[in-house]
TrEMBL record:
One of its GO terms (cellular component) is plasma membrane. The chain crosses the membrane at residues 154-176. Residues 33-134 form the Phytocyanin domain. Residues 1-32 form the signal peptide. Keywords: Disulfide bond, Glycoprotein, Membrane, Signal, Transmembrane, Transmembrane helix. It comes from the Eukaryota. GO terms for molecular function: electron transfer activity. This is Phytocyanin domain-containing protein. PROSITE patterns: PHYTOCYANIN, PROKAR_LIPOPROTEIN.
Length: 177
């Protein structure tokens, strides 16, 4: 009987595919994204002090993404990274500052704090916190995302039903076989 065999084969293939390539089913985390901080405004003194926090809140940063600080006149701004929220709030001296076009890869979860140290630009809101939520690797299928993560409920739901689907397929496969 070819029919049953074909079905077994199909289920086996689906299971192998899903286990081998979870990213196929995780549309959000599939590709690294390059974010230009501030989008078309770039990195400058913003129109108001909530501009960059609003900008960051509108994105979902993932491990492997990069953020780029872009501005036109080299001397007008700079960008430096400080170590903590306190230093960020204080506009503390980052020690090292870099020029336009600087990009940095987001390599782990947690928050990173960037400021401009020219004049009082930082005090005027030229600062941004980039927070990476839960990683979208295979391990997130097994471990629940950290509670502090910014992972959307959509992602969580997708992963949840995905795990359910696999269990169902495995159950069906072993029943049919
Ligand atoms: C800050 O400026 C942006 C861009 O002009 C604007 O869209 C936003 O509503 C402003 N936010 C506040 C709190 O004024
Ligand atoms: C970033 O800066 C470069 C060089 O100034 C410019 O060509 C490019 O359009 C900028 N991109 C954005 C998104 O601002
Ligand atoms: C922040 O500024 C306050 C007041 O100047 C100072 O007491 C504190 O040590 C600063 N904290 C950091 C982390 O720089
Ligand atoms: Cu500046």
């Amino acid at each position: 009987m070819g029919g049953r065999k074909d079905m077994n084969m199909m289920i086996a293939c689906l299971v192998v595919m899903a286990v081998a390539c979870p990213s196929l089913l995780n549309l959000k985390g599939a590709t690294a994204v390059e974010y230009v901080v501030g989008d078309s405004l770039g990195w400058t003194v913003p129109p108001n002090t909530s501009f960059y926090s609003d900008w960051a809140a509108s994105k979902t940063f993932q491990i492997g993404d990069t953020v780029v600080f872009n501005w036109t006149e080299t001397w007008e701004h700079n960008v430096g990274e400080v170590a903590s929220k306190e230093e960020y709030d204080n506009c503390s001296d980052p020690g090292i500052v870099l020029g336009p076009g600087v990009s940095t890869e987001l390599k782990s979860t947690g928050s990173r704090f960037f400021i401009c140290t020219v004049g009082n630009h930082c005090e005027q809101g030229q600062k941004v916190i980039i927070t990476v939520g839960s990683p979208t690797t295979t391990s997130s299928l097994l471990a629940p995302p950290p509670s502090s993560s910014h992972a959307s409920s959509l992602t969580t739901t997708t992963l949840g039903s995905f795990v359910g689907l696999i269990s169902a397929l495995v159950a069906v496969a072993s029943f049919v076989a």
